[in-house]
Automatic annotation (TrEMBL):
<dbReference type="InterPro" id="IPR007641">
    <property type="entry name" value="RNA_pol_Rpb2_7"/>
</dbReference>
<keyword id="KW-0240">DNA-directed RNA polymerase</keyword>
<comment type="similarity">
    <text>Belongs to the RNA polymerase beta chain family.</text>
</comment>
<keyword id="KW-0808">Transferase</keyword>
<dbReference type="Pfam" id="PF04566">
    <property type="entry name" value="RNA_pol_Rpb2_4"/>
</dbReference>
<dbReference type="InterPro" id="IPR015712">
    <property type="entry name" value="DNA-dir_RNA_pol_su2"/>
</dbReference>
<keyword id="KW-0804">Transcription</keyword>
<dbReference type="InterPro" id="IPR014724">
    <property type="entry name" value="RNA_pol_RPB2_OB-fold"/>
</dbReference>
<dbReference type="InterPro" id="IPR007645">
    <property type="entry name" value="RNA_pol_Rpb2_3"/>
</dbReference>
<dbReference type="GO" id="GO:0032549">
    <property type="term" value="F:ribonucleoside binding"/>
</dbReference>
<protein>
    <recommendedName>
        <fullName>DNA-directed RNA polymerase subunit beta</fullName>
        <ecNumber>2.7.7.6</ecNumber>
    </recommendedName>
</protein>
<dbReference type="GO" id="GO:0003677">
    <property type="term" value="F:DNA binding"/>
</dbReference>
<keyword id="KW-0548">Nucleotidyltransferase</keyword>
<dbReference type="GO" id="GO:0046872">
    <property type="term" value="F:metal ion binding"/>
</dbReference>
<dbReference type="InterPro" id="IPR007121">
    <property type="entry name" value="RNA_pol_bsu_CS"/>
</dbReference>
<dbReference type="Pfam" id="PF04565">
    <property type="entry name" value="RNA_pol_Rpb2_3"/>
</dbReference>
<comment type="function">
    <text>DNA-dependent RNA polymerase catalyzes the transcription of DNA into RNA using the four ribonucleoside triphosphates as substrates.</text>
</comment>
């Protein structure tokens, strides 16, 4: 029997589906008696622990959770249609026409997936891609972040489950409390998309699948007949399942059907499962004929990552020695001439956006033509006649890249030009004009900044040996070898003993030998038993043949005195990478700036132009040093100084009367016993916070020498008056 796409027999197959209570991602249709029986059978087998679908960490359940979340939007739409049907004369705007769109947009923007009916809450389901490097983007795109509390010490979710074997990388996981929880897909895995089921249905019936409705009861229960299930739909039964599966696999390998169509014969359930739907994670398998693999050497060349074609770092000549005192604590000393030649240089790309809004009173923001004369003309010299900076223009400190005007009802329009902070001088790379959903014009700038290494920038080798740039020295003062080779950077040898990064030493030896003989040395993570890794003895023999020392050490001369050093120096090329932690992105200082409304203290954070916080530990250090005036200046004068009026008679706070130009006590109703004192505004806020419960009071002793106040019966010294 052959079933075509528009054949009525194909619609009959839709009734043979798994019911929704167990497999929630498959549609439930009434009248599917055979599917209900199969469903109950699968449920009983799962209960008897023959199947691992019930495990919480099994990835077979992920599609069901997505279905539950998307189903709540369609159910809202269905309830709204039901209300319309009941009311009968209701207006059509009663339906929220974009409920599904708004729900998906909110989910993708916030990353929170909530299903109220099942009380399912998922956070962090969507993330912004970080494109620091090509290999870093691959790792971020394949990262799997589970919804599990990282602080719990449970070994089950941190292990690789049987359903994850071959699909997740067993090595690519972070250290610390997220170890084992945050996983990554293997590089060879593939997430499938939906395919048309019609050709597969026709093919299955052509290969001998019999429809259940055409079989008798005796034929249905034959011991050698197996159910054929395609994406959860029961197609029928086959009397020779192994022959059927073998024929399907041959067609798949010949390219007649999709390469990601899965065929699995389940002996326990007497079923053949065929999967061609989307959302499945597939892994490659090696085909073997009589125990001999079909993979040849040219196949392995196609599987190489080619990390060297688009690298994330550079090969640097590294000298392992102590040079001055600027290389302590993993700091590195860099050669200035190497930096001039381009070592460690990177391009930082940022996006700047501005929206020309339309207001309710009919006004809107405008982009004005820049003035060519006057005091603002110099800041707007990079703008074109349309008021925007052109691509290729250099934005210097205090330059304006958008000449924008915003309307104000009371005073008329006010110019609000946009500029960059004075920390860098980027270049305009691209300018894009678009509109948002409210028909407001949006202007997007893509700016780039070429940065060379500076003091404090962070570097790392491929073995986790990270360190900041401690000093940049002229090449004339750098040590050099007998052959005139001057290293690009110098690292402290004290970074090796405790970390035991022997792979970095072998990389230096192999790189030195590779430069000498002109070939790559294979560094395998599995060591010598793999048969491909180069032995240290062979690398050392190569060094000796080219005139180097057996252990990779060289005779070095001092660049300052010109005299030879008293020790041989371990020197050679090592692959170094520049990290994203750069001083230009972290450097911050301020004299004055915005403050918090409640406490009147400086704001927190570099993005808010906040101050540098003096915390409890810093305060304790200043107390230990006896720097009382520095504490007074840091914690009050430069933070939140405030003057209050204190009554010497009752000890309560008063207020200042500007008409009488004197302080008045709220309780005594006079200003005879009023003293003025300075204290932090946060302290005054703390005194007023208890309210009428504790009645905090002040006590002024010895005139205005010092002030004490009483809170909860405890006498505390506030500040000097």
């Amino acid at each position: 029997m052959v079933v075509r796409e528009n054949d009525p027999a194909l619609s009959d197959l839709q009734e043979k589906s798994y019911a929704a209570p167990i497999y929630v991602n498959i549609e439930y249709i009434t009248g599917s008696h055979g599917s209900k029986t199969t469903q109950m059978k699968c449920a009983s087998i799962c209960y008897k622990q023959y199947r691992d679908d019930k495990k919480q960490n099994s990835y077979k359940n992920g599609e069901g959770e997505i279905y539950l979340y998307l189903n709540q939007f369609t159910s809202k739409e269905g309830r709204a249609l039901g209300i319309l049907r009941d009311i009968f004369l209701a207006n059509i705007p009663f339906i929220v026409k974009d409920s599904i769109t708004v729900g998906l947009e909110r989910t993708l923007s916030t990353g929170n997936w909530d299903v109220k009916r099942f009380r399912m809450h998922r956070k962090g389901m969507t993330q912004v891609v970080a494109r620091l490097s090509y290999i870093g983007t691959l790792g971020h795109m394949t990262k799997i972040s589970p919804q599990f509390e990282k602080s719990r010490k449970v070994s089950g979710p941190r292990a690789l489950q049987p359903s994850q074997w071959g699909m997740l990388c067993p090595c690519d996981t972070p250290e610390g409390e997220a170890c084992g929880l945050v996983k990554n897909l293997a590089l060879m895995t593939h997430v499938t998309t939906d395919d048309d089921e019609g050709p597969l249905v026709s093919l299955c019936y052509s290969l001998g699948v019999e429809d259940l409705e055409l079989l008798s009861g005796e034929e249905l229960h034959m011991p050698n007949s197996y159910l054929i299930i395609l994406n959860g739909l029961i197609l029928g039964k086959h009397r020779r399942p192994q022959r059927f599966a073998k024929a399907m696999r041959k067609l798949r390998r010949a390219g007649k059907i999709g390469e990601f169509v899965s065929i699995f014969v389940n002996e326990k359930q007497h079923s053949v499962y065929i999967a061609s739907d989307g959302g499945r994670v597939c892994r490659p398998l090696v085909i073997a004929d009589k125990g001999v693999s079909r993979i040849k050497e040219h196949h392995m060349k196609e599987l190489r990552v080619r990390f060297d074609k688009l690298g994330a770092g550079q090969n640097a000549t590294v000298a392992v020695m102590s040079y001055s005192g600027y290389d302590i604590e993993d700091a590195i000393v860099m050669n200035k001439s190497s930096l001039d030649r381009g070592f460690g240089r990177c391009i930082v790309i940022k996006k700047m956006a501005a929206v020309s809004q339309k207001y309710e009173n009919g006004t809107s923001d405008r982009i004005l033509r820049p003035p060519r004369e006057g005091y603002e003309a110099e800041r707007m010299q990079i703008l074109d006649d349309d008021g925007l900076a052109a691509p290729g223009e250099i934005i210097r400190p205090h330059d304006i890249y958008i000449n924008k005007e915003s309307p104000i009802v009371t005073r008329g329009p006010v110019t609000s030009p946009m500029g960059l902070p004075d920390r860098e001088t980027p270049v305009v790379d691209r300018v894009a004009l678009c509109s948002d959903r409210n028909n407001n014009m949006c202007i997007k700038f893509m700016i780039r900044h070429t940065r060379r290494p500076e003091l404090g920038d962070k570097f790392s080798s491929r073995h986790g040996q990270k360190g900041v740039c401690g000093n940049i020295v002229q090449q004339e003062d750098f040590p050099f070898s007998e052959r005139g080779i001057c290293p690009d950077l110098i690292m402290n040898p004290h970074g090796f003993p405790s970390r035991m990064t022997v792979g970095k030493m072998i990389e230096l030896l192999g790189g030195k030998a590779g430069v000498s003989c002109g070939r790559f040395h294979y560094g395998s993570a599995f060591g010598e038993p793999s048969g491909h890794a180069d032995k240290v003895e062979a690398i050392s023999e190569t060094l000796v043949r080219h005139g180097f020392s057996y252990n990779g050490k060289d005779f070095i001369y001092s660049g300052i005195t010109g005299e030879p050093l008293q020790a041989y120096i371990f020197m050679g090329p090592i692959y170094y990478q520049k990290l994203k932690h750069m001083v230009l992105d972290k450097m911050h200082a301020r004299g004055s700036g915005p403050r918090v409304m409640i406490t009147r203290q400086p704001t927190e954070g570099r993005s808010r132009n906040g101050g540098l916080r003096v915390g409890e530990m810093e305060r304790d250090c200043l107390i230990a040093y006896g720097a009382s005036m520095l504490i007074y200046e840091r914690l009050m004068i430069s933070s939140d100084p405030f003057e209050v009026q204190v009554c010497r008679k009752c000890g309560l706070l008063g207020y200042y009367n500007f008409k009488l130009k004197t302080g008045i006590c709220s309780t005594c109703k006079n200003g005879e016993n009023i003293s003025t004192m300075k204290l932090p505004y946060a302290c005054k806020l703390l005194i007023q916070e208890p309210g009428d419960e504790y009645h905090p009071s002040f006590k002024v002793n010895g005139g205005l020498n010092y002030v004490l106040f009483m809170v909860c019966g405890i006498l505390l010294q506030i500040a000097e008056a």
